[in-house]
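Posting here for the record, re: sulfopyruvate.
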Amino acid sequence: MPDFDGGAGEYVSARDYAQHFQRSVGSPKKLNAVSLLPKQVREFVEDSVRLCRPSNVHICDGSEAENSLLIDRLLENGTIVRLPKYKNCFLARSSPRDVARVESRTFICTAERRDAVNVPRDAVPGQLGNWMSPADADRAVAERFPGCMEGRTMYVIPFSMGPLDSAYSKIGVQLTDSAYVVCSMRVMTRMGARVLERLDGGEGFVRALHSVGRPSAGAAAEHPGWPCDPDRTVILHKLESNEIISYGSGYGGNSLLGKKCFALRIGSSIARREGWLAEHMLILGVTDPRGRKRYIVAAFPSACGKTNMAMMQPTLQGYKVECVGDDIVWMRFDRNGQLRAINPEFGFFGVAPGTSRATNPVAMDTVFENTIFTNVAQTSDGGVYWEGMEDPAPGVNITDWLGNPWTLGSSKPAAHPNSRFCTPAEQCPIIDPNWQSPEGVPIDAILFGGRRPKGVPLVFEAFDWKHGVFVGASMKSEATAAAEHKGKVIMHDPFAMRPFFGYNFGHYLQHWLSMETAVPHAKLPKMYHVNWFRKDDQGKFMWPGYGENCRVLDWILQRIDDEPGTARPTPIGNVPTRETFNVEGLQVDFDELFSVSNDFWIEEAREIAEFLYEQVDQDLPKDIHDQIGNLFSRLNQNNN
Ligand code: GTP
Ligand code: SPV
Ligand code: MN
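Prediction output follows.
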């Protein structure tokens, strides 16, 4: 019989579970957590217990004591090891088959396919998400979940996306059989007993059921310490009932369900109904040398520089950047027509490789306390190592992410390219004083960007809101290690949301377009496209990036202030004039960085048009159709 007195957490046997809620016994503290479960939460837990048959149920209170207990359990199981070089830091090594999001097994479930995904022309395969019928979803669950938690504990995680006192915030309850997920959710979300108090008012919540799964009979043996079922992984989003059901993976966005599943997929669908935006964007505050502060948001695809930009250390004198969020934004126009944004998250789940004192010193000052690293390399002095990080001291040995000895200069990477740090946002030395402000921060500019080695200038400005929406729709980027795609193919990634749309992309475009007139006198932010990743003929980056990206912000702020003489129109948008874009002290080829080749862009426009017509077909808004026409006519005029 499981123990009711098991330390800080609440332990309830599955069998006695239901009765226990009614019984008023036990210590006052335990009684609290259990009896506080509001009715709908209790029903969700009970239904899931019946399905998954865990041997214990643990209702998470979010306390420090509970966390230590779970960490001890993870250390015991060999899921994590302690990193004695730092304070309260741990390293997890996942199964080598469970290292990133699996986009091909991620589905939006609705009765009507067209509500969930774009419906391409001529039965062309859709590139912007996958649909599954409710019947197939039920079958997928029935084939995987019964008894999947046998011998394990089911953890109940009440969590809030957004500050608890914000009207923008939404609540979820995740059930999981992974203590690693609980510890990570504690970093990434506001989690625990205080969330349940808010739920008590009868407010709705997002149901999120997660199991790392267990391989079906005959499948390969489990990786010690990291059970998973990669052959049968599936991640389902039922829009009509605000439910997430994830099976088979313990990694990142597959398992920390508050993040991509809730805050983006379910979130964008709720946002459409309620008239706001849930986006894959960073939020930063930038103060100029005159002391004026502006906030901007930026949508870059996975592993394209959001965390780095959100923590930027500007190289230009007198500039200061402060971080509100590095991955997700929820934003809406307030009654005065001001766009306001919150970061629904509580931590950073950041890409480790490439992070160094030179590139992102702020991240380096953030991550060496209270952090769970996953799939980075380990050093013999109890620290971590990854590609791009300063070399360890002589005599220090390195063990790679697979647990094998590794030497500097080896052809294989020491850390997995999608290895991550999971670290509390409040530890960031430049966290914005308003980052938890319940009413959000006011937004003055929206940036889009991606990895574009050829043809795309460092920055250009959209002519107006509709054109900006078209620029977002036209985004493309080189594939990254954050998902299962192989190689550096350039993929369409509209709004950096390709893997995260919660509903039909055509409807999503219409929703963005509708914002222009959604509130009277909306102060529409200016929109930009940036590209830190243009390469020269030798294949070298033409732009130093990182802290130097503040020069792009410097120009954008001049544009927001309507300073004269700052822009030169091109067919694709406004680019900076030489006089107003500061490249002082840099060895860069200004003309090449900002060149807009007509030949390249005619080809690009053709390809974008084909993509949009083919993928979105019937649901492509007329405004976007017009934008395509406008782009072609600007390019053709330019040719003449
Ligand atoms: P997700 O967490 O997957 O959504 O990624 P992200 O958009 O937050 O990307 P992140 O900031 O973690 O950067 C990913 C990789 O791009 C890292 O290896 C960075 O070093 C690299 N990177 C970021 N900014 C720049 C830049 O300005 N120039 C260059 N060349 N590389 C950059
Ligand atoms: C991304 O891939 O955009 C991430 C990492 O931020 S994950 O949480 O795994 O989605
Ligand atoms: Mn991301």
